[in-house]
Amino acid sequence: MTSPTSVQQIRVATFNVLTPLLADWPARRRAVAAQIEQARPDIIALQEVDAGPDRDEALHDLLGPGWHTAWHSHTTPDGIGLVLAGRWPFGEIREHGLGVTDRAAAAPWSAVVLAEVLAPAPLGPVFIAHHKPVFPFDHEHERELQAVEAARFIRSEIPSPDEHVILLGDFDAAPDSAGIRFLTGRQSLSGMSVCYHDVWEAVHPGDPGHTFTPQNPLVAAGDMFSAPGRRIDYVMVRGASFGPTLQARSAERFGVAGVDGVQASDHYGVVAELEVPPRRPGTWS
Question: Counting CB atoms within 10 angstroms of each CB, which of 26, 64, 118, 151 has the fewest?
């Protein structure tokens, strides 16, 4: 198959698939693979995947052949980790740990991985940041500090506001939390401000779009069943003074319905289609 010489659009997804150690993984694995295939991403960030010695084979079972990968370097003690996968080759891959406090440092897999995606022009290159903060409800202080640390790291590595930067992952924080408000330009933290544009919000204003909810049978059966539903999985595009460098064409959840009666995960995935705008933000037509 001949690679296109020009690419204007990209489909980007994030999906926490729930650790294979729980909830009948052989059946769920088939459901996860089917849901990802239906989402048709060019880039996907996966959380809670098998990152052990046979990780490439395990990932092949979910995605099929032909994917390039950027793994988080640390896993949980039982070998569960995170990976960014893309249909185009990766250039430089950088990782920054988010052990901002003693509690955060106890989760060394909490990090941001920044990968250069060598997509064809005019889209490429594009930079994808796979962000994973800590998850406990009562760790919002850490998530705030981690949001700032991740944003500072990305800015230091990719300082030009004209470069396409997509920030995505399972952020374990609702849109009204301080960390998400910081990332989306609604408030400053630690004397810093940035503005990443939340693609779901751009496409579905006013729609809560919960991605982790007790309406999901695996949440209802799990250990966080008593909390209300939240939207905690995001695709964001970095912007500067005049708006994001990529425009949102669509944003959808996937994995909401089961496959042959099997719920894929306790999270719903998010897939977004982005395109290069007709002109640079900050210029008149």
Answer: 26
